[in-house]
Amino acid sequence: MTVVHAVAAHAQGGLTGQQSAQRDWSPYVVHFTNWKAMDYVRAALLHLEASPKETYGLLTEADAKSAGTAAASLASGHLRRGSPSGKDGIPECVCLSECKLPGLIGHAERYGRFGFVFQKVDIFRAGGRPCAYLDEEHYTMIAELGRGKPATTKEGRLFGLTNIYTPPGFGKIQDYTHEREWRIFDDVRLDAVPPIALLAPRTHLTTMKWHDVPVLPIDMLFDWGA
Length: 226
Fold this sequence. Notes:
Distance between the termini: 17 Å
Helix content: 40-55%
Number of helices: 9
Number of domains: 1
Strand order of the largest sheet: 1-4-10-11
Largest sheet: 4 strands, mixed
């Protein structure tokens, strides 16, 4: 038990101390850059069609593609919003996760291993909000109000922050609660909402340069036990 750190957190305030004791809680959110780049890696693992060596090769190729996306974001100074789904009329947004480190390692394996880490409060100040996970009945009710409406409307924004949750035994399973998703319905300007850290594979650390922001090797975090 990390007693000293917990006591120090309590000294900063009661809520800060309580949150520090919850080891599944995080004050940070992370945006990973390239779902598409990981397609072949996910397929190889899902269908067991590749050897470990071949999987490593696919991951290396995926990292190269994700590196290009991350570099473009840094060069433009923006994280560009896009549709989180090809259906349902969800407003374009930038998606983030508030997972703790072990969850983020798994998240990176789906969304690419290059990440932008922000203070949760900074994303909230810029308009980002955590998503809600609802049963299909309530999701449908909100969708009828907000589907197709822009995020500048209350109805469109509420719809854009909802996901369906269907556990085993209640129909077709749909459960993404592990992603602990946040959405912000605008581009994220890195000069206005500066990242506090960047994530990259150790072989691509030089790709991720943004002022004096530290770059953490995500594979080293895995090796270390995250």
